[in-house]
């Protein structure tokens, strides 16, 4: 394929045609007349040797190849947009743009709020958009990173991409305040005997692998796709849940749960900001990474200055 002979404007037309499935609406979307968009569709059909859009009754449907190209075109468009909006200089006080970060609800609650606070104070024209980490993150990391500005994720799940470390965390267990059979600590027998609430995404790998290595097979009663739902599913039940200590510190005062420590030395958690190498030398992205690092330092500084919290009556353990 000789890219020099391709008209990259066709990427814009192709995306509009595949998403709108209508020549007139696609033309209106990208500012082309109906004849001009029809001509673009003809060129695309010759290039791919496929109709792409096939008339069925009174409307158009995507062909099999058109369906394949739908997701690929969106990804290609995002990559091209990021490529041609790269800057040699970046002034956060004057710029207006959006950064897209992929993150779990845990990372947004614990770190994203601090990052948003710093950005609000230093760069009023900058917007942050947090999107939930998809299940395909491990299988298609390169594509995910190429179409976003970064991924908030602990070490031990993905590798071979640049990253900057942000903060450390650890794993603790949540049980109901009035749990009938867990006084002060969990035992290994408790972990096998009691019902669990788990985070259902498969990329929470290190902590899950550790349980298997210890011969602990959780008896999962409920699974959810949000870390912040775990305390709600524990309160008032016999269930237990494995959560990050920083999130437990945020959520425990809001629900009728308490924190107990694992009966084993839990694998540590180090959260990092990962990015695609194509962003490494981009001035705007350098600012984003530096700001994330400063936000992480501010998070740690505030925790150091914050006085110790008094536990509510009935709580027999706190999260240091």
Describe this entry's structure for a reader.
- The structure is a single chain.
- The protein is of the alpha/beta class and 320 residues long.
- Helix content is 41%, strand content 21%.
- It contains 11 helices and 12 strands.
- The protein has helices at residues 9-20, 23-30, 34-48, 64-84, 105-122, 141-146, 188-193, 205-213, 230-234, 245-251, 283-305; strands spanning 53-56, 59-62, 97-103, 126-132, 150-154, 163-169, 171-176, 195-199, 219-224, 240-244, 257-260, 269-274.
- The strands form 3 sheets. A 5-stranded mixed β-sheet has the order 4-3-5-12-6, with helices on one face. It has a 5-stranded mixed β-sheet with strand order 9-8-10-7-11.
- Helix 2 crosses helix 3 and helix 5 packs across helix 11 (283-305).
- The longest helix has 23 residues, at 283-305.
- The radius of gyration is 25 Å and the shape is globular.
- Mean pLDDT is 87; it is low at 310-316.
């Amino acid at each position: 394929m000789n890219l020099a002979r391709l008209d990259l404007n066709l990427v814009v037309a192709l995306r509009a045609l595949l998403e709108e499935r209508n020549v007139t609406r696609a033309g209106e979307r990208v500012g082309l007349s109906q004849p001009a968009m029809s001509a673009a569709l003809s060129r695309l059909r010759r290039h791919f040797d496929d109709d792409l859009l096939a008339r069925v009754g009174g409307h158009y449907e995507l062909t099999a190849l058109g369906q394949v190209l739908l997701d690929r075109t969106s990804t290609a468009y995002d990559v091209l947009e990021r490529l041609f909006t790269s800057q040699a200089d970046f002034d956060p006080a004057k710029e207006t743009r959006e950064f897209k970060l992929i993150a779990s609800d845990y990372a947004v609650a614990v770190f994203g709020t601090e990052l948003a606070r710093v950005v609000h104070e230093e760069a009023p024209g900058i917007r942050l958009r947090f999107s939930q980490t998809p299940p395909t993150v491990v299988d298609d990391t390169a594509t995910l990173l190429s179409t976003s500005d970064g991924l908030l994720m602990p070490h031990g799940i993905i590798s071979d991409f640049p990253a900057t470390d942000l903060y450390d965390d650890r794993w603790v267990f949540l049980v109901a305040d009035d749990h009938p059979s867990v006084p002060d600590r969990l035992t290994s027998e408790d972990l096998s005997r009691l019902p669990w609430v788990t985070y259902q995404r498969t990329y929470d790998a290190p902590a899950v692998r550790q349980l298997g290595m210890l011969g602990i097979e959780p008896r999962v009663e409920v699974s959810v796709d949000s870390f912040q739902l775990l305390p709600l599913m524990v309160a008032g039940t016999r269930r237990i849940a494995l959560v990050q200590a920083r999130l437990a510190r945020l959520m425990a005062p809001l629900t009728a749960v308490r924190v107990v420590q694992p009966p084993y030395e839990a694998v540590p958690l180090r959260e990092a900001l990962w990015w695609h190498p194509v962003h490494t030398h981009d001035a705007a992205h350098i600012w984003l990474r530096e700001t994330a690092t400063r936000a992480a330092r501010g998070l740690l500084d505030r925790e150091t200055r914050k006085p110790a919290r008094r536990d509510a009556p009935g709580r027999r353990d706190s999260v240091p």
